[in-house]
Amino acid sequence: MLSAAALGLTACGGGDESATSNVTATAGGAQASCTTRAYEEIGGPFELTNHLGERVTEQDYLGKPTLIYFGFTFCPDVCPSTLVGIANAYKKLPEGVEPPRTVLISIDPERDTPEQLASYVASNAFPDGLIGLTGSEEDIEKVADEFVVGYNKVETPDSLAGYTMDHTSLLYLMDENWKLKTFFAEANTNPDDMAACLGTLLGS
What we know:
By secondary structure, the protein is of the alpha+beta class. It contains five helices and nine strands; from the N terminus they run αβββαβαβαββββα.
């Protein structure tokens, strides 16, 4: 069983960089074949609000592979660079391979309203059709538990934002039946590797 502690937290702007764990130490690991990183205990039901203000569940995302990332819009570095990296990986997919649907689940519901998410996901640098999801603190806690995601609020009184969020920084590829197909360690994944893995898993 993977735990949030094993997967580790990544500091977003001003946090402790040592919070990023070496995911290669976990079962499956970042260096293992991308086809060996499926864990039945990761992923599950949820009820959240999308960036259009609509309540949705995992049932709304069946029928097509979905790449999930937990982050937040006020993250100054890790989150936007990860989303740009995903977009770059999609551009490198083998011909004929359709990129998965991409979903950003906010772990900062205090600031990430649907309106804030709508503005954020519209960036041309991010994957086309990026979907933002948010909800109450209870909603986010439930979906984070389903994905074994750890996160915590870090006060930054000297910054304009006032606080930042440290969080597990992994990418989860769910298949068309909402079962985990693989995961990527954001800190150890480059667009070429991600594109090759996605090509292998989605090309058949």
